[in-house]
Amino acid sequence: MSHEFLQVLWFILIAVLWAGYLVLEGFDFGVGMLLRWLPENARERRLMLNTIGPHWDGNEVWLLTAGGATFAAFPEWYATMFSGFYLALFVILVVLILRIVAIEWRGKISDPVWTERWDWFHTISAWVATFLWGVAFANLVQGMKIEVLQRGTWEVVPPEQITDGTLANAVHVMPGGFAGFFSLLTPFTILGGLVTCGLFLTHGAIFLALKTDGSLQQRAIAMSKKASIVSLVVAGIFAVLAQLLYGGHWLGWVGLVVAALALVGVVLATHAEREGWAFIGNAVAAVFAVVLIFSTMFPYVMKSSIDPAYSLTIWDASSSEKTLPVMTIVALTLVPVVLAYTAWSYWTFRKRLTVDHIPEQNAGLPMSFLSQ
Fold first, then answer.
1. Whole-number mean pLDDT of the chain?
2. Which Gene Ontology terms describe the biological processes this protein takes part in (predicted)?
3. How far is the CA of 354 from the CAs of 45, 47, 188, 190, in angstroms?
């Protein structure tokens, strides 16, 4: 296999990893976003958390794998992205940690105020992380204020002087700090954040409709009907703008059409109360949204809004000819194992849950324990 083939292959594999993350972690975030609004009492909130309990930490492996694959296969992409997204990714990291702590600590103390406080932290962190992921992906589509600096002098290289030779002794950079953070927020990227909020909210509501029974299930079905319509409208506007303004590759139109048809199918399936088909449709929409995003980026991994010459291509960002073949062998060996145990986990915990599975009292320690 040639080096160029492996460069494209790993660009595709990273897209696959992000698609897996959005599909699997999407309903986890969606359940968290609904945690303070959908249930009527503490037992129903506990029930909602139990639906994602066996899966949420395993689903986050897809994020770690996507980040690790980017670092190993495209180190220049990783470095440029983390320098520009530094504050945004720091906020995402904080809310992801807060979400984990909220899930793990809510049941440690048997006190309603304690659990409600952590449930609020869970809900807020789910909304913030979901919105920021959408903003981040929209920036990859739109392009960012990336420049090329000469090593040593650290002066900006004029666009007309960009060649393979100059790039060998230069770095791609973009402003960090608060200025860089707020430069990521534009009408288009904010719309991208709303897309992920609508998509994940729908995903979570459908998942709850699949995994629960009784009155909570009926409220989840009602929520999925409303959220699916909002998701279709917002995602449709974003996808058309992304392809018309920043696209050009024919694969982007494929992603747009398939994602749109899938979201229409989600609306129809939720209103027909066919939760299984609705969940599949929303997952397909998430996958082809990634197809749309990565096709608008190709052959770049980071597009510059200052000048196209400053954009970072997959050819310039990738690892060496020795690294990519080794990574490919490791991926072909381990990815099937990951897929196998993920499938086993979902099959094992496939049954519906009801409030009858939830005890009346939390088994945690008394609140007085904290004052000892």
1. 85
2. aerobic electron transport chain
3. 11, 7, 41, 37
Contact 143, 311 (CB under 8 A): yes
How many degrees, rounded to 5, is the angle at CA 259 between CA 258 and CA 261?
Answer: 65
- CA dist 286 and 302 (Å) reads 21
State the residue for tokens 């520009």.
Answer: 84
Residue 4 has a pLDDT of 84
Task: Flag whether pLDDT at 368 surpasses 60.
Answer: no
Instruction: Tell me which amino acid residue 9 is.
Output: L
Distance CA 95, CA 212 (A): 27
- What confidence category does residue 167 fall into, taking pLDDT thresholds of 50, 70 and 90? low
Q: Hey, what are 161's tokens?
A: 């002087």
Predicted pLDDT at 176: 56
- Residue 369 DSSP code: G
- Can you say how many angstroms the Cα of residue 334 is from the centroid of all Cα atoms in its chain? 22
* Closest-CA residue to 27 (of 149, 209, 264): 209
CA–centroid distance for 291 within its chain: 14
**Nearest CA-CA partner of 203 in 73, 27, 326:** 27
Q: Which is nearest to 215 in space by CA: 12, 5, 39? A: 39
Structure tokens at 205: 């509501």
Here the tokens at position 126 are: 């789910």
Dist. CA 126–CA 31, nearest whole Å: 9
- Burial track 287-310 (b if 16+ CB lie within 10 A, e otherwise): bbbbbbbbbbbbebbbbbbbeeeb
Helix-then-strand count for the chain, H and E:
15, 4
Asked if 176 contacts 86 with a C-beta cutoff of 8 angstroms, the reply is yes
Burial 217-231 (b: 16+ CB within 10 A, else e): bebbbebbbebbbeb
Write the pLDDT tens digit of every residue in 77-118.
Answer: 888 888 777 788 888 999 999 999 998 888 777 777 888 889
**Lookup: tokens for 80:** 């440029």
pTM, entire model: 0.89
Q: What is the CA radius of gyration of the chain?
A: 22
Beta strands in 276-352 (DSSP E): 300-302, 312-313
Burial of 338: CB neighbours in 10 Å, binned 0-12, 13-18, 19+: middle
Q: What percentage of the chain has pLDDT greater than the value 70?
A: 90
